[in-house]
Amino acid sequence: MSKFLYKLGKSAYSRPWLFIGGWVVVLAIVIAMLSVNGVSVSSEMKLEGTESQKVLDQLAEVQPEASGGQGSVVFVAPEGESLNTPERLAAIKEAVDEVYGLDQVLNAPELAAQAMAQAQAQAQAAQGAAGGEAGAGDAAAGAAGQGAGAGQSGEADAQQGAGMAQQEGAGAAQQGADAGADAAARQGAAGSADQPPYTQLIVDGAPVIGVTIANDGRAALFQFQFTVQQSAVSDEIKASVVDTVESAASETGLEALPSESLLPLDIPIGSNEVYGLVVAAIVLIMTLGSVIAAGLPLVVALFGVGIGVGGAYAFSTYLNMSSITPVLALMVGLAVGIDYALFIINRQRRLIFDQGLGAKEAASRSIGTAGSAVFFAGLTVIIALCGLLVIGIGFLSTMALVASATVLLNVLIALTLLPALLGLIGERICSRKAREKNAAVQASRAQKQAKARWIHGVIKFRWPVILLIVVILGIAAVPAAQMNLAIPSAASADLDTAKRQSYDAISESFGEGFNGTLLIVAESANGENITPQTLGALTQGMQLLDNVSVVSPLGISENGKLAMFSVIPKTGPNDEATSKLVTTLRDENLAIATATGVTLGVTGVTAVNIDMSAKLAEVFPIYVGIIVVLSLIILLLVFRSIVVPIKATVGFLLSILATFGITTAVFQWGWAHDLFAFDTAGPILSFMPIMVTGILYGLAMDYQVFLVSSMRESYVHGHRGTESVIHGYGQASRVVVAAAVIMVAVFAGFIFTHDIMIKQIGFALAIGILIDAFVIRMTLVPAVMSLFGDKAWALPKWLDRILPNLDVEGDKLLEELKAQEAAEGARGR
């Protein structure tokens, strides 16, 4: 590997414009594809195989309209005023009617009217008498009234009226009317017992379907349904809905607050990331002592993420990609791109300073030696990320593949574009002034070697250091035991955002559960049609369950096999009690389900998020197991040692647990929330632990490879015992510290974005790198290595024969170069 990379580096250095031109062409192709295809990302995160997704898929097949996305708008009157005035109520009704007329919005009033007409016609045909006509009309009206009273879409009301009217004869029609009346009465009775703070909005003596008004008269909630999945709703339609309701509200002095599902998708990339790059630039200048040298890692990293993230956006029209996917690629790409280039440039400069090599030879050797470490470090990150594919979760797999592709691009660019750029710079990579300054520093460094207090102190007090680190990180990990995994909702958004204000207004006037409506689908277990009696019995039975606020029957499917209900919990979407309610409704032995001969399925945004969190929590230990096994195998191959892989893996587990503990304390418990610019504590993003574990593992192994390979190189070149640890640490610590500071700065730049999901991931990665680089790699690793001394590199002979020699340190390359130099010297004599 090192020989091949040496030749590649020399070729790129000698013919810079060929390699630079090649990468420019690739970037141009990505830009062209991006301009043609555009950007298409979604906030939807589909999780195949879960109960909620199965129900959605079933609805999409049997009753496509019922599987569409949902939206809501809350109209709020100014403090001390009421919206119960003729002008304001008329404006709300006009806005609601206009929204129902938009494309991709289910026209509930029209469907309700159609259902009523159909019910009347069928009842007349069945009975041929006035009594039958009245019964059918009452059935349809009862269905429409129930749907409107619950504030849900009229599409379901229409299904119920039609379904009931499809029963045979006048007796069935009358049963439908009785069931509708009984269900409404039961809902009203339950409501009066709980004293609900809302009623159905009535304008000009007729109910406004989908609109509920608070009893205090200050807020009205409009809930409706789209005809397509949430991810398929166009931005133009969302904007039309928002413009319509805001226009009507502003004319009457009201405030219209749209739900999060109606707001345009905001790609969470902003100016905050620039601050991390500024810090990175400062650290690079301080480390390399040259503006020219410091600029190269930034150029390389930006080239890598430009192609990687730009390519992800260019292909987003062909992939189901969440908005967070390219952001993760940007995070990881910037960090590894800067670090990998820094390692290579630092090695080149050290070869120039310490061995007096020319810039070309030094660049070629740095690609062959440090480049080998970069290759295996990048490979480690890619393997860790691709381990997510084993879990089989679609959106996580897409995230992993996009991030892995970006890391791979950064590795290839560091090994090809970077030496080409170095070829353009030539000997200017180290100015004469820098060479003279380095010579003076080197002259005094030998005298000051004994004053390397940190590494000598760590080795001298290694047992107290090891115990102290274990205790401190153990304490930091304690909050992780109480980590609550969920998809952060508008409840934890900043107070000045529209989605948070909408959430709070709904919670205050109607109850927090109205922010997390559950869609229940009852399927006939014996294949028979669901009757109106069954519909009424299920409504009554579910209304009596704990933590249920309102149950509204939404109707029966056209084939008569499915019945749909809206269930509004008393608690919010991320509340533990809501999760328990979902579990209860899915219980096969639930009394109301067995008594009516149906099986109940639960779906909706809230149920999907609950299932996602449960699934990710279930597979997380499996993924950690995969990471541990990979860690042991990769490090065994790289370092040809038993002790080093075990020590590195245990250290990583300590750092990751402490990271999760601190992240839980900050974001879930709310510690220091003002410092990190968010208003409200909330749950931890459900896929954050599994994603952060993969990324942190790969990056932690980067530092492990660069630091410990330097110690091994010292050992191979004759240093023994603690001397090899001290010498190797001295050779690599400065650049590893710089790389860690840069990576922390890059990730920290994402902490101050407005998106709580990106904020949590950025914080976890920043604090994780901080702990792993400075506490584990720079402190615990040398302490443990000094305990074992030369035994740290022991390997059983049988295993030594089996394992391939990867030559990460480039020993074979150096031997070959020395042989060539010796041969050339002999010919010269």
From TrEMBL:
Major subcellular location class: membrane
Record SUPFAM superfamilies: Multidrug efflux transporter AcrB transmembrane domain
Entry keywords, A to Z: Cell membrane, Membrane, Transmembrane, Transmembrane helix
UniProt-listed InterPro entries: MMPL_dom, Mycobact_MmpL, SSD
Subcellular location: Cell membrane
Membrane topology: Multi-pass membrane protein
Biased composition (Low complexity): 153-195
Residues covered by region (Disordered): 132-196
Name of the featured protein: MMPL family transporter
Biological classification of the source: Bacteria, Bacillati, Bacillota, Bacilli, Bacillales
